[in-house]
Prior knowledge:
Layout: E1 2-3, E2 12-18, H1 25-33, E3 40-47, H2 53-63, E4 68-73, H3 78-87, E5 93-96, E6 102-103, H4 107-118, E7 122-128, E8 146-149, H5 153-162, E9 172-175, H6 194-205, E10 208-218, H7 232-256, H8 260-281, H9 286-296, H10 300-305, H11 309-314, H12 317-328, H13 331-349
Parallel strand pairs: 2-3, 2-5, 3-4, 7-10
Antiparallel strand pairs: 1-4, 5-9, 6-10, 7-9, 8-10
Helix pairs in contact: 5-8, 6-7, 7-8
Amino acid sequence: MEVNNIDSKPFFSVLVPVYNQEKYLPECIESVLNQTFKDFELILVDDGSTDSSGMLCDQYAQEHPRIITVIHQKNQGLLFARRTGIENANGEFYLFLDADDYFCGNALKTIYSQIEKKSVHMVIFNASLQADFKSKLNNYPYEDGTVLEGKQKNVFLMAFCGTHMFNNMCFKCIHSSLIDLHDYIDGVGVGYGEDLFQSIPLVDRAESFCILQAPLYFYRQHAESMTHYYNPAQFESLKNVCGRLMAYSQKWQGEYKIPLIDKAYEYAGNECYRTAKNVLKSNDEFGVKRNYLAELKKDAFYKKYVENKRMCSHLRMYEKFILFAVKSNSYMMQRIVSEIFSCASRLKRN
């Protein structure tokens, strides 16, 4: 492992896992270097890239040796690339930035001002799918600048366990005291749901949260990221992540006397439904899809949570039809749903 070290102790550590992102990496790095707030370090973890990403990291580090630290390692995946960044971070607060995304110019200044005014452990901000930051990715159920602390944490926990909008690590700024590297021991094999897996213990330890409506982060959507497919390893990862959510939900329910386990069950049910739907949306031959569904329906985790009544009640009519087709094991119904997805995919490509 090769590391370029810096000596100063900055306010922010911006941690960027890098894997084969030569096309977008310069824009990402420059969005940090061009911040109006300058008290930060930038840690680039080259996670075994096979393109020119690692070389680009080194070039930027040579130009900015007091700001940028580069770490080259064998490919370990997103979760452990972030852990490597944390192990080498010196800042008081940590931010996570994906190598194909970028910050708006005043992101760090905006976050810093909230930390200084409100002395919180975690700032959660918004993102945009537009490069000009004119749209918001999430509709947070709080007024801009809301601080939740003390007994109010139960309000945040209800939203955290009941929705996906607070999962993403890249939309959080966290105090370094919230980090415990032991959180990653159970993360071996987690290649899906990494953000929620990483967020759960941090949310557990945080005593105060500030919610910002402002989109400070550009979240890039790629065609491949919107492609749905079934991967058995991904489903195993999902079960690991849901296991952590179940355990902490039970802990929080005991502490705050709020019905969080039901919400965790609902989350698991949604993910099981999404997994089955992705089988039918995949590009595999229909016979392969049928085999995947048959194996999926034998899985104890899937059987337990796909029947969640709260989850089913929230599904829209066409989603209920998809779920019914999956559960019925009807060749004809599953074939119809599969063909509908195939036609929709072709229309999008054209």
